[in-house]
Amino acid sequence: EHFETLLAEKRGNVGLITLNRPQALNALNSAVMRELAESLAAYDADEAVGAIVLTGSEKAFAAGADIKEMQPVSFVEAYVGDFLGGWEAVAATRKPLIAAVSGYALGGGCELAMMCDFIIASETAKFGQPEITLGIIPGMGGSQRLTRAVGKAKAMDLVLTGRMMGAEEAEKAGLVARIVAPERLLDEALEAAAKIATFSRAAVLMAKEAVNRSDELTLAEGLRQERRLFQSLFATEDQKEGMAAFVEKRKPNFGNR
Length: 257
Ligand code: HXC
Description:
It is built from twelve helices and ten strands. The protein has 257 residues and is an alpha/beta fold. Keywords: Fatty acid metabolism, Lipid metabolism, Lyase.
């Protein structure tokens, strides 16, 4: 596959997508949206891929939506054309998607990282929602996913002042899962993804689905859903294999389909 705005390559059972618009700090334009949706859908459909890593450059994961592309857009164009609506495709990815963030993750860049299942950050990572400085507000989930991740106090602080927060603050607040040294970032994310890819594919997809439902359901509904998914896994070969391997003190060999 050849893309203009990103690189997509397989590393074993992991799909690696690298945003690649260095001249614009990986600003997210409609070409990035299209190509990212296409590459994610391809990895979702690829039986050999068990998890996906999304990363940027050392200086920027992504410095936001492309301001030069947005500048002339009218309300009618934005509304009728469902401006930014296509980004939903990222959150709709069914396989685990890890964001490996170094440098700036601002505006749409922060929102893109938050659409991933978890964020591994380099010590250099800087997160923020600076839309307010441009006369707009977050438009790809920032007001919702950031608030769920870090709570109202810090979300309000970031969205209203437009300030950036570093990796340490972001981890303490619950936005980031792990912080690593810059030179470890990609390996850490690839190793996590490769590990996920060794597990039962059905169990992995259900685990992601179950955790994501916690944002949408009441506790009672979420618990019921979790229990049904849990029970259904006893219909899989992978459950028999995983538990037999434990009892026989050997490594499991999951079918992964
Ligand atoms: C278009 C961008 C860009 C962006 C950077 N560039 N961010 N182009 N859209 N979001 C371009 C610059 O214009 C410049 O190109 C080149 O990338 C390098 O950027 P510099 O500003 O020279 O780099 P630096 O001085 O290191 O500053 C880095 C920075 C700054 C602090 C990240 O670039 C910055 O503030 N960028 C905008 C951040 C932002 O406001 N993001 C939110 C966007 S709104 P040229 O060719 O000019 O030299 C948003 C809306 C979300 O995301 C709503 C839903 C998506």
